[in-house]
Design goal:
Radius of gyration: 17 Å
Strand content: 25-35%
Helix content: 40-55%
Number of strands: 8
Order of helices and strands: HEEHEEHHEEHEEH
Largest sheet: 8 strands, antiparallel
């Protein structure tokens, strides 16, 4: 996988876990239920990521780009088949399925909570100067998400983690794509924050 050894990748996973923990805590406060997060999986190519994901499944997608010392894309994917359950958790007794605009607003809100909790924790730890861009919403099959995809750098690292409601099977996925240079900036930020023996 690019130029990173197993120890460096483990450190990047641990950094991601801290960000995921912040996202899960915010989700628990919003949904009033426990959230289970899964250890991030790392991929060195888009094909590896696609092979590890149900490419034909349709998703509600909330995507946020960021630039600066770290450049990349962070994306939350809600499988369409679980969206109704998620909306019922956010607004019990509501009828959001019949109002497309309200549905999209809620999904953007939830996606933004996940994205902000994740990225802000990572950027605070590494002290990387980063500019957030406004989240964008769409619905698409995973196989089509990347049709017009242009990697932020020639060599990229992809990471994927899952969120699951403890008392249900509602799952969303968080994807992170950063170029090799940005990933190295993340790693150097970890070393400075925690010391070489992180």
């Amino acid at each position: 996988m690019t130029t990173f050894n197993s120890d460096q990748l483990d450190d990047l996973r641990e950094l991601m876990n801290l960000g995921l923990g912040s996202s899960a805590k915010a989700m628990e406060e919003l949904l009033h239920t426990q959230i289970q997060i899964f250890i991030p999986e790392m991929y060195s190519s888009l094909k590896e990521l696609q092979d590890a994901t149900n490419a034909d499944e349709k998703y509600s997608i909330c995507e946020m780009k960021f630039t600066g010392d770290l450049s990349g894309v962070c994306t939350v994917l809600f499988p369409i088949k679980f969206v109704r359950k998620l909306l019922e958790k956010v607004s019990p007794g509501g009828n959001l399925q019949d109002n497309l605009e309200d549905k999209i607003d809620i999904l953007i809100e939830v996606g933004n909570i996940i994205l902000t909790g994740f990225t802000s924790t990572i950027f605070d730890i590494t002290q990387c100067h980063t500019i957030y861009h406004q989240p964008v919403y769409t619905e698409e099959k995973f196989v089509n998400i990347w049709n017009n995809f242009k990697p932020v750098e020639e060599k990229c690292i992809f990471a994927k983690s899952d969120f699951k409601l403890i008392d249900d099977d509602c799952i969303c996925y968080l994807l992170l794509e950063v170029g090799e240079i940005s990933a190295m900036n993340l790693y150097e930020g970890i070393r400075k924050h925690y010391g070489v023996n992180f």
